[in-house]
Design goal:
Elements (H helix, E strand, L loop, with lengths): L2 H21 L2 E8 L18 E4 L1 H4 L8 E9 L12 E9 L8 E4 H7 L7 E7 L1
Parallel strand pairs: 1-5, 2-4
Antiparallel strand pairs: 1-6, 2-5, 3-4, 3-6
């Protein structure tokens, strides 16, 4: 196989991998919570930093979500108050807590994580999320 064909195969494989990752993204909503972040349902008083989140029943799985990491991206507003809340970035968070019934989002991000992907004044946003 020549160099040109090898490069083409690598590019096609990389593109297919990216498309597969996008195809597997789930949609939901995100809200945020503020410190203190401990104790948490998964790790008690262990400090897990600030790139963390609480899982709703949609992904909690009776504590199976503890320690899972998700890449979360803002895809739009849920209200008219902030019609364009997204910052065009994504963030990777680790699930360390449970967002109990009545939780307003699929994933309840730390305030710091939410602020990286959206304007906190929005309060709640539409998201895509993928386990990483």
């Amino acid at each position: 196989m020549g160099f040109g064909v090898t490069v083409l195969v690598v590019v096609v494989a990389a593109t297919a991998g990216c498309l597969a990752a996008v195809a597997n993204a789930a949609e939901g909503t995100a809200t945020f919570y503020t410190p203190p972040y401990v104790p948490s349902s998964c790790n008690g008083y262990q400090n897990n930093g600030v790139m963390i989140a609480a899982a709703s029943d949609a992904i909690w799985g009776n504590r199976a979500a503890c320690g899972r990491r998700y890449r979360v991206s803002c895809i739009g507003a849920t209200n008219q108050g902030v019609p364009q809340p997204c910052r065009g970035q994504s963030v990777v968070v680790t699930i360390v807590d449970y967002c109990p019934p009545g939780c307003q989002g699929t994933i309840d991000l730390s305030q710091e994580a939410f602020s990286q992907i959206a304007d906190p004044n929005a309060g709640k946003i539409r998201i895509e999320y993928t386990q990483v």
